[in-house]
Amino acid sequence: MSMFLDTAKIQVKAGKGGDGMVAFRREKYVPNGGPWGGDGGRGGDVIFVVDEGLRTLMDFRYNRHFKAQSGEKGMTKGMHGRGAEDLIVRVPQGTTVRDAETGKVITDLIEHGQRFVVAHGGRGGRGNIRFATPKNPAPEISENGEPGQERELLLELKVLADVGLVGFPSVGKSTLLSVITSAKPKIGAYHFTTIVPNLGMVRTQSGESFAVADLPGLIEGASQGVGLGTQFLRHIERTRVILHVIDMSASEGRDPYEDYLAINKELESYNLRLIERPQIIVANKMDMPDSAENLKEFKKKLAANYDEFEELPQIFPISSLTKQGLAMLLDATAELLDKTPEFLLYEESDMEDEAYYGFDEEAPAFEISRDDDATWVLSGDKLEKLFTMTNFDRDESIMKFSRQLRGMGVDEALRARGAKDGDLVRIGKFEFEFVD
Questions:
Q1: Residue 170 is assigned to a ligand binding site
Q2: Residue 117 marked as a ligand binder
Q3: Does the annotation list 349 as a binding residue?
Q4: Strands (E) located in 250-380
Q5: 390 marked among binding-site residues
Q6: CA pseudo-torsion sign 334, 181, 231, 161
Q7: Is domain 163-345 classified as CATH 3.40.50.300?
Q8: Topology annotation, domain 7-157
Q9: What's the rounded Cα separation, in Å, for the pair 214 and 183?
Q10: 3-state class (DSSP) for residue 278
Q11: Residue range 367-434, CATH number
């Protein structure tokens, strides 16, 4: 059984920057050695790269955590630690990446070799050579590396095809794909023979070529989750032209025109923009006895629902079995593709704002809350990052952190909230006493 996975939820974590080093130059013939600790190396990014050899998101079924390496620590003699290699994650063409928390689209990866950094590595911490000043020529201060970006992502695969075959189950979509391309989809005389999208390349007699996707059969209610349609309607979104395949022989006992209306209703219910795509009606199974009469009736009903000045969709009678009418259908499809532009898949409101990896100037530097045990809790991106990058093994670094908190106004804010001498203050898992 072929396994097709077109959605996945994964976690990515970029590498932490290497810690800066505290070191001093002590050489026999060099007086006043001074600080000599180097900076840490940059943490690795997590980068998605499009690989046209991949067809599904199956690789993400069992491996859902991707973590880049951390940068090396700084070294003596002022040497920097080595930056970590980026983690390359290969994804198939047509992968949409969303932020799992906000649902916003981060990027849409459609070209072979396209790269996108989904998580940025942290910068390396500074060594004590960076903190030397005339007042403090031999500082015992260094920084820890910056944490790497961590996020949960939703991956969604939407197959890359110019033309999508839609229609009820068993109307002959798979057979049509098999005779116009070299694809070998599973074909059977029962509903939902096709359980995964199949792709094939068509070359017309005039030499034009385009990609066709045979999508699993839709039924009424597919856009609300009935049948297989809800899983695969997304794959129609990238197509520019829809071939609406209808069983004109009515071999299943359904009215061909009612089938036509029902499928269009599902496309509209799933995504209003799908109905904007130009359609060609493919009247299939014309080799069957009642097909010609049914086609006449179909055309009458179709014309009755269009205004006098509206252009009717093109209808091509074909037989996938006898290959009748295929050349004209393919030429018309190629001609329609030539004059149909790409459809914008996402609105601006769907896209994530351009990422900014500094601090938001308008965001508060810290927030104060109180825990059930009466401990004051400090939080906030800027404060927590400052805390993470402080080396608490060195007294001078701790004193520097205290000065930074005071400079941010933390002491005054705590005092204003009623903090008293000796109260416990917590940042993450670290606790200290408030000194008034």
A1: yes
A2: no
A3: no
A4: 279-284, 314-317, 367-370, 376-379
A5: no
A6: negative
A7: yes
A8: Spo0b-associated Gtp-binding Protein; Chain: A, (2.70.210)
A9: 10
A10: coil
A11: 3.30.300.350
Instruction: Work out the widest C-alpha separation in the chain, in whole angstroms.
Output: 106
User: Cβ contacts of residue 13 below 8 Å, gap of 6+?
Assistant: 46, 65, 66, 67, 68, 119, 148, 149, 150
286 is in an annotated binding site: yes
Q: Please, where in the chain does CATH 3.30.300.350 lie?
A: 367-434
What is the distance between the alpha carbons of residues 379 and 413, in angstroms, rounded to a whole number?
Answer: 13
142 assigned to a ligand binding site: no
CA 22 to chain centre: 41
Token duo for residue 354: 């351009």
Is position 226 annotated in a ligand binding site?
no
204 is in an annotated binding site: no
278 and 311 Cβ atoms separated by less than 8 Å: no
22 labelled ligand-binding: no
- Token representation of residue 55: 């067809």
192 known ligand binder:
yes
The answer to the question of whether 429 is labelled as a binding residue is no
Q: What is the pLDDT along the chain (436 residues), one digit of tens a residue?
A: 345 678 999 999 999 999 999 999 887 777 777 899 999 999 999 999 999 988 889 889 889 999 999 999 999 999 999 999 999 999 999 999 999 999 999 999 999 999 999 999 999 999 999 999 999 999 999 999 999 999 999 999 988 889 999 988 888 888 899 999 876 655 544 444 445 678 888 999 888 999 998 877 665 554 444 444 456 677 888 899 999 999 999 988 889 999 999 889 888 887 767 888 999 999 999 999 999 999 999 999 999 988 776 788 999 999 998 999 999 999 999 999 999 988 877 776 677 765 544 445 556 789 999 999 999 999 998 999 999 999 999 999 999 999 999 999 999 999 999 999 999 999 988 999 998 7
- CATH 3.40.50.300 region(s) of the chain? 163-345
Q: Is 89 annotated as a binding residue?
A: no
